[in-house]
Amino acid sequence: MATPETTTEVPQDFEALKAVILERKAQLPKRLKQVAAYSLDNPDEIAFGTAASIATSADVQPSTLVRFAQHFGFEGFSSLQQIFRARLRERTPGYEDRLKALSENEHSKLESGSIFNGFVAAAHRSLDNIATSVDPEAFERAVDILAKAETIYLIAKRRSYPISSYMAYAFGKLRVKYQLVGTAAGIDDDMLAMAGKNDAAFAVSFSPYASESAAQARLLAERKVPVVSLTDSAFSPLAESSKVWFELVEADHAGFRSLSASMAFAMALTVAIAEKRHRLIDEAKAE
Amino acid sequence: MATPETTTEVPQDFEALKAVILERKAQLPKRLKQVAAYSLDNPDEIAFGTAASIATSADVQPSTLVRFAQHFGFEGFSSLQQIFRARLRERTPGYEDRLKALSENEHSKLESGSIFNGFVAAAHRSLDNIATSVDPEAFERAVDILAKAETIYLIAKRRSYPISSYMAYAFGKLRVKYQLVGTAAGIDDDMLAMAGKNDAAFAVSFSPYASESAAQARLLAERKVPVVSLTDSAFSPLAESSKVWFELVEADHAGFRSLSASMAFAMALTVAIAEKRHRLIDEAKAE
DNA sequence: GTCAATATGGAATTTTCATTCTATCAGTTC
DNA sequence: GAACTGATAGAATGAAAATTCCATATTGAC
Per mean pLDDT, which range of A174-183, B5-14, B115-124 is the poorest? Predict the structure, then answer.
């Protein structure tokens, strides 16, 4: 066995590993130094390649990779590779620090505090995802469709309802005509019956999908009312009825999904629509 | 060999693959549909896992994964997996630049994009604040008061309404008795008239304060109904009627304040209450 | 209600891959 | 300049993983 008592600890994350490698790089033998340089220059290769393929492109023997890993206290090459893989899974740099900060704050001392921290962390994660998962051009198209609509119909049930109730509030403030569908059952369909092709709808539904929302969206789509939708999976029944749809996966804590990303999205959409609409009105006046 | 001449082309990148999967998802048999959903919902798992581990967590057989891959023209599971791996490689070459990327990302090229980025950034800022501005002990007390209540009255108007409408939804799921006050004007006061000192209320109000909310909170406080409140200033009229109150300043973009922090707070409070309540019930039963 | 076609589960097989072992080589010390 | 220490290459080994195959189950058509 190499070390019965571990003198230096085995790095557990990429940053730590990087630090150790840099620290000892100078004293490393030739081939190991070569591997060290390669691993820091091509971390993605290490993450995905096989020992053989990496060995070839780093111009060493596979066994050298194993020795390299063992040199830094890992059991073998595979366990070192895990570090490189984990690095790709954790998305943003800020996120790590935030989590660490959360786990060290006062809340973690108290029981309910961990629940509190959990939801804050989930919200952060959700927001980190949103920028990459929303296509800017689709967003632009959505704004366009909704800005041109006479009346915007907001469709949402259950968990999605807070989203559209916020939009309703904001539209009210911004003097954009809207109809909130989903409050009292029964009158919904009468409301939707008034929607024509000069109007548009925005539907929000997360799994488990409320069948009514999907049905209402379909109804509107059949009547040539353009539908924009927000959902959490490409498999949502909403997608097929929509001209533009967004997939937004919210992170969760203890099974309760965050609404932060959806909320931020809704706010952005609302304000963008209002802005575009006012511009359209101004342009119309100018002529 | 399966197809000497490729009738439909094999997707070469993640986006193409996603498109093909979505296109054919309806005609897919049960298990393959299951894999389709799993793969699009957990792309990272597919990238890193082994066929066996993925199969377990998607609840199918390893062979089903191979069949799935072949169904879309790949030689086997491994070549499909390459697509998922490539997706991770191409994403953001430099993680350090990630935060900067938000201000320089694709969104900012388009007009509506800057609005979008602005709201995401505001939400992040809000969440960063929340941990320091909420006192863990006060949170614990709030949970205690509300967990002991028979019925929880949720008071909110306008901008705060989405917050409590989420809580209402969650309380419903969690089997906690509640009354949402603020929907239709007029009947509110009748509802509140039924509140007794075994109940409790949670009020949310941000400036400009809805005078009704403050009045209703005062009314309840006079009748010895404990009130917990969430607001954005120590000067809020809600504060004086409340046993416990929280000050939560949301960051804003273009004058529109985020709701992310309040939302995260509401979720944490809701779940903490439900948990504590169930514990109290269990303890009562045990005696 | 029966048959055919297709889908599925699970074991068997084959391939691939990490690791270990041994011979060789280079550098260092006495 | 010989003997020793440590590094390296390359083949051998054994484990693990992907894939294939076959029996069974399910679905849909007639």
Answer: B5-14
A208–B contact, CB cutoff 8 A: no
Q: What is the pLDDT of residues A74-125, one digit of tens each?
A: 888 888 888 888 777 764 444 444 444 445 554 444 566 677 887 888 888 8
Under an 8 A CB cutoff, do A44 and B89 touch? Answer: yes
**Per-domain residue ranges for chain A?**
14-89, 93-129, 132-286
Query: For B14-90, which CATH class?
Result: mainly alpha
pLDDT at B99 over 70: no
pLDDT in tens, B217-237: 888 998 999 999 998 877 778
CATH 3.40.50.720 holds for A132-286: no
Judge whether residue B70 has pLDDT over 80: yes
Is residue A278 helix, strand or coil? helix
Contacts of B115 in chain A (CB under 8 A): 268, 271-272, 275
Tokens representing A263 are 């909320």
**CATH homologous superfamily for B115-286?**
Glucose-6-phosphate isomerase like protein; domain 1 (3.40.50.10490)
* CB atoms B140 and A264 under 8 Å: no
CA dihedral (B205, B206, B207, B208) positive or negative:
negative
CB contact under 8 A, A110 and B136: yes
CA-CA-CA-CA torsion for A92, A246, A185, A189, nearest 10 degrees? Answer: 170
**Cα–Cα distance, B92 to A67 (Å, whole number):** 31
Please tell me whether any atom of strand C lies within 7 Å of the Cβ of A62.
Answer: yes
Cβ A77 to strand C below 7 Å: yes
